[in-house]
Write a structure and sequence with these properties.
Elements lengths: L1 H5 L2 E2 H19 L4 H4 L1 H13 L3 E3 L4 E4 L1 H5 L1 H7 L2 H10 L2
Antiparallel strand pairs: 1-3, 2-3
Length: 93
């Protein structure tokens, strides 16, 4: 979500970014993030976010955060460990 709060992005570019972050986090933490590294799981994850209107797709096929998702951005920062989010943002180049 932090990527989508920053910019509109093509689904393939988002998938590439998410996969790179997931791989780096796996190296650091030893956790598997298959919802981002497995292409079919990623597509299902994005479809679910679109269906539930957490994200939207514009006429140029770019994804972005919906208004409701932008409103919960503060709560998102409180929910996730700040060190973890800093690491994700550092990896999200």
């Amino acid at each position: 979500m932090s990527t989508l709060w920053k910019e509109e992005i093509d689904i393939l570019e988002l998938q590439d970014k998410c996969e790179a972050i997931a791989n780096k986090l796996q190296e650091i933490e030893g956790w598997l993030y298959t919802e981002f590294s497995d292409a079919s799981k990623f597509k299902s994850f994005i479809t679910k976010l679109l269906d539930d209107r957490y994200i939207k797709e514009n006429t140029n096929n770019k994804l972005s955060a919906s208004r409701i998702t932008k409103r919960v951005q503060k709560e998102f920062k409180q929910f996730f460990n700040q060190e973890f989010m800093d690491e994700v943002n550092r990896l999200n180049l």
